[in-house]
Amino acid sequence: MVALSGGDFLFGNDDEHAYPDDGEGPVRQVSLNPIRLDRHAVSNERFAAFVEATGYVTDAERFGWSFVFGGLLPDDFPPTRGVAQAPWWRAVEGATWEHPAGPKSSIDERLDHPAVHVSHDDARRYCAWAGTRLPTEAEWEYAARGGLEAEVYPWGSELEPDGEHRMNVWQGEFPSYNTVADGHYGACSVDGFAPNGFGLHNMTGNVWEWCSDWFRSDLHTGDTNRVTRGGSYLCHHSYCERYRVAARNSLTPDSTTGNTGFRCVR
Model's pTM, two decimal places? Predict the structure, then answer.
């Protein structure tokens, strides 16, 4: 974990990148206590240790299926149910944290990748075992900013400064063609890119991360979804420019997908 001093910071965003309906703005000052935050998302190796120690069964295992990006499935994979508004998501039977691309896949070569197909409750159960908790949305954004103020990304205002890829997102035409210019099709290791100013890896891109908060688009109206932050390897500016430090998203607490994980705070 990395020790963060806390204090006052500017939370949110209302510039041209913002999605107004997501409630990114207005920008407001928030004060935080000191915390310690995981240097990177919880890896498959760490989640496996939790399961081995406790015998825990995840929601995806109990459901019998989870959402997998269709592009990660082999060409001869049997037909699966899709999502009408997002047909690239496939409901794959047997997809779990241990089998992230379906029952024939394995984490054996991905122990350093983030644990995915974990619900909000799965993440909370892990945290309880580890003596930690999920970060609040404000804690997450403070950490993601890495000590910078009013910047778009953890490293500054440019997506690819000097042509360098700083995170794992989609390049090309989504969802049909990925140039893999950043070196990854699907998730990468939890420390696959250089850390931000606080020494934290992959705060944007790679996989969405659960926060503890209920999602409110106007910060006053309650919601039945939990906040996720950071974007994922599927984010592309054509439809989801949410790989920014102030960008917000949400999922129902029982959602399990191949691009959502978590990190812990103490």
Answer: 0.96
